[in-house]
Amino acid sequence: MMRFVVFIFFIFTASLWSFSGAKSSSILPPNEAFIITTNTTHDTISVDFVLGQDIYIYADSLEFKSQKEKVEVALPKPKKYDDELVYGENFRVEIPKEGVSKLTVAFEGCSSAGICYEPQIRTFEFEVNQSLTQKIGDLSQELNVGKIAQVFSGESGWFILLLFFIFGLFLSLTPCIFPMIPILSSILIAQSKDKKPSVFRTFFTSLVYVLAMAFTYTAVGVVAGLLGADIQAAMQAPWVLVLFAAIFVALALSLFGYYEIALPAKWQAKISQTSDKAHTKGIVGVAIMGALSALIVGPCVAPPLGGAVLFISQAGDPWLGGAALFVMSIGMGVPLLLVGIGAGKWMPKPGGWMMRVSQFFGVVMLALAIWMLSRILPASVTLFLWSLLAMGSALYIGVFESKFQGAWKMVRLLALVLLLYGVSLFVGAITGASSILHPLQKLVATQSTIQAEASLTKSDYLGYSLQRLQKEIDASLKPVVVEFTKDSCVACKELELLTFADKKVKEALEDFTFIKIDVTKNTQDDKELFAHYKIFGTPNILFFSAQGQYLPEKTITGFVDAKRFLDILEQIDK
Fold this sequence. Notes:
4-stranded antiparallel beta sheet; Immunoglobulin-like; 5-stranded antiparallel beta sheet
């Protein structure tokens, strides 16, 4: 009897085990339960949902996103199941293809076998058939040097030249080109001492200036690409910056009327004789000034420049890369050509106004000298120089004089504003501030802010080698952001003052490990880092995943505002 009971118990247990195993084996894994595929035509993306046996999707959970924007689509009519609207059979959804490069499909589903799956997300990427205007618009805002370099091998030569001309137009709206405007303006005024210049003459002078700048810029880019040399960095060496700052001071004093800069009389006679015959008086000097401007003042290291130089270095094709740089320089010079046309058309006849304008440009020349020295001087010293310039200009205008009448009282008001601003800069220099936009920041900063700023000293980001960087990336449990910077980089300082100082950016960077690498000394380790990651110039910002994987498609070259920087941070998995 006992044996019979044991036998029945064994049969019952085996039956339960068999039933349980059968039920378990009937539950499909998510990739088999929900098979989603896409097919594309010229203007449509078809998304096919193939559901496993007894599988259904909740209709209200189905969501489509293109890039980050939600896409409204026409869905088939769902069926009712247990008071819920569901899709229990295979179905298709069609989406307009225009502008869709990345499609995300999100949904929730269950099995009638008694299990509900975790929320599902499927991502698909597509090549976008953009119009010429769309393609140029997207690339003109591209921050990644590698993607711009790919354009050279994937597009026609004419498209590349058009694209880089538009790049130049965009760069002409940035601070890169601004310092050249007073230089050219002072040249045009100097040429109009005797009589009002014609539109042709001022335009021709501006054209020579722009062409000299363009040829110099192109030559520097091509040589840098072929030799792998950072010539622009060499021109930012401290002794070079001091030399040219001294030249700007000398030009300023000349514009103030203390002396006149001129060639020896014999040289002047010879050049004048030659120039008068060619109707191009002073053109040689204009060309020289344009070439020097390209080297010492601008242009900034920007994604288009980096992309062209990277292409030249990788493909060894200096002709296409050089032509692209040349047309970009011409695009950058468009505002300068407009200055030339405007000067010839609207410049009044020579008179007393020229002395005041010369003095104004003298102040601008001093400002350019300080701006250049700011790349190598401590921030407090730079603020002190700016304060001297502002207060000196206010006193020169006559802030404490009562001679101003009528509308000229506005000039005195301007002088008063300059004086107050100069005083605030002086206070900022004494208290250790670093920004000319926020000179009193140290007086209003909280104790926690001061401690945070003091926590990272310059020695913390010097002497990085490829091995040291890789070791810190591997040790990080968070995604990593690496910034390459140097003392003479103006765009780097803009990043510090405008982007990294943004409150939202600071909060977002708490989820990342931030590494700052100073490459001012351009050591062998610095060169190896640049070569390894195929980057050019500063600033460059690199991104790594939490697993330590380098994300080259996210690399940023040049200045980026807080909003776009935050957008890129959001794209990186935490």
